[in-house]
Design goal:
single chain, 344 residues, alpha/beta, Rossmann fold, UDP-galactose 4-epimerase, domain 1, 2 domains, 7-stranded parallel sheet, 4-stranded mixed sheet, 18% strand, elongated
Length: 344
Amino acid sequence: MGKDKIIKLITKIGFVTLFFIYSGLLYYDFYFFDDNGKGDIIEQHKTNLQSLQDNKIQITGLILGGSNAIFGFSAEQLSENLEDDYFYNLAAHSFVWLSFDQPELVSLINGVGVLRCLEAIREVNPECKFYQAGTSEMFGKTKEVPQNENTPFYPRSPYGVAKVFAHNMTVNYRESYGMFAANGILFNHESPFRGEDFVTRKISKGIAIWLRDKTPVVLGNIEAKRDWGHAEDFMEGIQLIMSHEKPDDFVLATGVMHSVKEFVELTLNYLDIKFYWDNNNCYEQATKKLIVTTDKIHHRPAEVDCTLGDSTKAKRTLNWTFKHTIDTLVKDMADADLRRFYKQ
């Protein structure tokens, strides 16, 4: 993808945005999306916004809150000046737990919003390449482990259900109209820019704050297992999907699974904090102070016990590889939150 290409990017302010900037790619429109329902996107992403300003990037689009998301635009509004070569739809209401409280909103954003994007491209610029950000949450309660592109979907949340609609609609537009419409089914991809409502950031931020004032970290189901990778590797995979000679659907995953409890342990070990567990409570060995505890209020009504991806197709077809491990991911996130929140 050359630097002269024009991109429309609908996303949250995070690693994805910075990846495009540091790749030297030209933006046409920015649509930054707040998906936590709290309207605090500016506060949570001050560092990320500063990176945009430091790179002299002008925000020409909108910063959207939950009530003004993609579904609020008509196809005609989305298609205004749609001269893009690439259209990346990376935005979503992506806090799965909250989707149970806001199922209609999530369906409109994650489902109907994608349909409107596809329809705008079809009507105005069908040569524009479209990327839809899928998720491992679409697999949900599937009995097939690991999951690949042929694994049946069994979503367990309004978030996952809406994403399945978006995935199938992307396939339908590709097959019906010959559009370059591709799905990336990405398993959990984390970075220091991850939203603070996600469990990996709850852990890295929470432990940094615990070091500062000994406030315990409160988590939900610590036995849940996920295939966690680094967003840097996954963004490179997305670029390969969009640069491929024909549109297709690809799973991107590390093929390695860890529990939430293990992520806590990896973070504590990296920070050289000696600990022990008593049921679901984690204590510091020396002081017996509580580090991590759990509360069922953070459990989902319908849980996804484990996700494990098989990215064989992406590796063979796209030559996709990843350089990060769970250890380098933990290091990046822990170091970043120590700088943000820990004051000696």
